[in-house]
Amino acid sequence: MSQPPAEPTALPEDPVTDVTRAQTSEPATDQRPVLVVDFGAQYAQLIARRVREASVYSEIVPSSMPVEDMLAKQPAAIVLSGGPSSVYEEGAPQIDPALFEAGVPVLGICYGFQAMALALGGEVAHTGLREYGGTKVTAADESTLLHGTPADQSVWMSHGDAVHKAPPGFTVLAESAGAPVAAFENTEKSFYGVQWHPEVKHSTFGQKVLTNFLHNGAKLPGDWTTGNVIDEQVARIKAQIGDAKVICALSGGVDSAVAAALVQRAVGDQLTCVFVDHGLLRQGEAEQVEQEYVATTGVKLKVVDASTRFLTALAGVSDPETKRKIIGREFIRVFEDAAREVVEEAHESDGGDVKFLVQGTLYPDVVESGGGTGTANIKSHHNVGGLPDDLQFELVEPLRTLFKDEVRAVGSQLGLPDEIVQRQPFPGPGLAIRIVGEVTKDRLETLRQADAIVRAELSAAGLDREIWQCPVVLLADVRSVGVQGDGRTYGHPIVLRPVSSEDAMTADWTRVPYELLAKISTRITNEVAEVNRVVLDVTSKPPGTIEWE
Ligand SMILES: Nc1ncnc2c1ncn2[C@@H]1O[C@H](COP(=O)(O)OP(=O)(O)OP(=O)(O)O)[C@@H](O)[C@H]1O
Ligand SMILES: O=c1[nH]c(=O)c2[nH+]cn([C@@H]3O[C@H](COP(=O)(O)O)[C@@H](O)[C@H]3O)c2[nH]1
Ligand SMILES: NC(=O)CC[C@H](N)C(=O)O
Ligand SMILES: [Mg+2]
Hints:
Binding site for ATP: 251-257
Organism: Kineosporia succinea
Enzyme class: ligase
Structural class: alpha/beta
CATH class of the largest domain: Alpha Beta
Protein name: GMP synthase [glutamine-hydrolyzing]
Radius of gyration: 25 Å
Helix content: 25-40%
Number of domains: 3
Region (Disordered): 1-29
Bound molecules: adenosine-5'-triphosphate, xanthosine-5'-monophosphate, glutamine, magnesium ion
């Protein structure tokens, strides 16, 4: 039986190269802001970022802020974000109708769209017809909001409720299978709304919808530019750290490399980097950090072998959130020991505590850990939601409001080589969150072998840039029957999860050519004992996340 040819994956658009757009704080500006009202969205920062990309100044405010306070900021326009609640649910965040009486242009997105529809006299239904990920919509011929976008387009949805009737005075602009009113507008009042997420890159004409709203709907000029992120951050770091000593949690990944380079530029040799080998790393990773990273950057590096400590703490644990909390805690305990050693080595036994810890935390780590306003906790990233309550360090996180592509641009501008800046992400909790079930030494070894094969084959096929990352997951608690060498086997499946993304907030599964998948599958089942089945994960994010745990 012949297989259909694999569809080529569209390459993600070029990453943002203008570092000056990477906004890290609310800068002093006399411009009237576009307020992004956050209903607990996964994507509130992303909306603010896209507005800034349209050269319009933007700030985020929580939906709990009274409308008088919002209006006191003299917003030039308001964007109502998505959120996890359902509009009729008890305690769901509401919109004060006064917001619609102030003469300010409004764009509602997802939950914001639904809440707006309800507040203005439309109807929202919970039909059970849900849409997650890439969805086709059919758009009206002419409108302000969807101007310049095709009649049939693919948008990124993530909803369970849907607007069934637009409020009086509104024109319906689009529909999808699960959303009879997928977009609407009332140009007279300058009110607009979409059920989908225009702020995510996977919505092909998303930025066009946002700029249509900003420039044509709200009639805002695009004349705002940000200052330089690097200068701004270096100055902030200097002010925070002064002449104290500081350690940086360095993983060899992009984010901590860029964070370390910023801190190094700010405070020079007051910085010592600490790399933790927690026994959950991939093949060759520890060596790579020890040799290549130090050679490239000349940074002072301390390597700690903490594998026994982590594996002991993880023994018997299968629950993903518990694993993450344990790992977050153990990381900090190791950093505390390392900090004491740094002081001892500097012969400063009295008063010379290291009180600052640098981490390469990005905005997605924060928001997925439930760190936005009213944002759901999706998973506790070890460096945010997994931190222990008794944390003694003051954190230095210069990348905390940025997305990965912005961090890559900062890294390049700082002079870091492409081998570091373009590296695929690897999560801090490592292989522990890629073993579904308890983490043991043997299972880690099995997964390490399979992962090394996958990485080698994808690299050899030249797919490293096209693929954002490819988690390889061991379903340790699942077994299936195989026949190998004429004998019965009862082994474990390995899951391949190749994804394409720009910022890890949304992702699609990469259409890796079938021949290559076949080769990987054959190699894994031939070379890795205990594995007799290889499966491909074909889920986008949403609804799946990139990692399985
Ligand atoms: N093995 C490790 N040793 C020391 N610090 C670590 C380690 N793994 C992760 N960290 C810390 O946790 C932070 C978050 O990890 P994360 O994997 O998100 O970022 P990264 O490794 O720097 O970049 P990338 O996303 O490219 O892998 C890192 O920036 C770093 O500060
Ligand atoms: O340092 C990290 N600590 C964590 O606890 C963690 N969890 C997920 N990831 C990485 O974050 C991105 C988004 O992953 P998810 O779609 O699985 O949430 C992907 O790039 C993941 O690899 C982590 N990185
Ligand atoms: N992403 C969202 O804003 C979702 C809105 C609402 N919770 C729904 O599921 O329909
Ligand atoms: Mg990493």
